[in-house]
Specification:
Layout: H1 6-16, H2 23-35, H3 38-54, E1 56-57, E2 64-65, H4 71-74, E3 79-86, H5 89-97, E4 103-107, H6 125-134, E5 139-142, H7 148-161, E6 167-170, H8 186-194
Parallel strand pairs: 3-4, 3-5, 5-6
Antiparallel strand pairs: 1-2
Helix pairs in contact: 1-2
Length: 199
């Protein structure tokens, strides 16, 4: 038996379907939205509808944009010979925050995951291969997560890219800045030793 009206329960269910939002958080969000003045609630709903209707994939890199191509692909100052391959659009933001990378991106919108029935045709692999085949690409950087699916996707893509003669690299792994060696897991420590560089 529900203690809430059906429309409120429906709102809670929709918030609870969002990633990382549990039932209690969903209830807090729903009550917050109910407490908004009508114009703010309408603006919130309009923002969702506006984003859904106006945001789509860049025809070059598959990142999210409102135009035909995204600002990174449109920029004349970016190095168009380098592509950094990421799993999701939010990964682009993470790399851009570092202000070190000046190349372009390719967003896969997922990773290979047989357990979740995600195969090569379910993510944006064909678009990457077409870009590499049709442009003067010198390096492709694999920046997928260092988990099982991310590693499998990076290895699969590196095999597909080999015939194009491009340099395929992987992000280095190591010990986070400011951390302690005693708290570092064995796999990270092993990768850090393997990927050591001269100083």
């Amino acid at each position: 038996m529900s203690f809430f009206p059906a429309s409120l329960e429906n709102l809670v269910d929709h918030f609870a379907s969002l990633p990382g939002v549990g039932r209690k958080s969903a209830q807090r969000l729903a009550f917050h939205v109910l407490g908004l003045p009508d114009e703010e609630a309408r603006a919130f709903a309009d923002a969702i509808l506006d984003a859904k209707s106006n945001v789509h994939c860049c025809r070059i890199c598959q990142n999210l944009t409102e135009g035909e191509i995204c600002p990174v692909c449109a920029s004349p100052t970016r190095d168009k010979t380098t592509i950094c391959v990421v799993s999701e659009p939010r990964d682009v933001l993470s790399i851009e925050r570092g202000r070190e990378y000046n190349g372009t991106y390719h967003v896969l919108h997922g990773v290979l995951s047989p357990m979740s029935h995600v195969g090569p045709d379910d993510i944006r692999i064909k678009e990457l291969l077409t870009r590499v085949a049709e442009n003067d690409i010198e390096e492709v950087i694999m920046a997928t997560n260092p988990d099982t699916e991310g590693e499998a996707t990076a290895m699969y893509l590196s095999r597909l890219l080999k015939p194009f003669g491009v340099k395929v690299t992987r992000l280095a792994y190591g010990i986070p800045v400011g951390s302690n060696l005693e708290f570092t897991d064995d796999a990270t420590l092993s990768r850090a030793i393997e990927g050591r560089t001269e100083i």
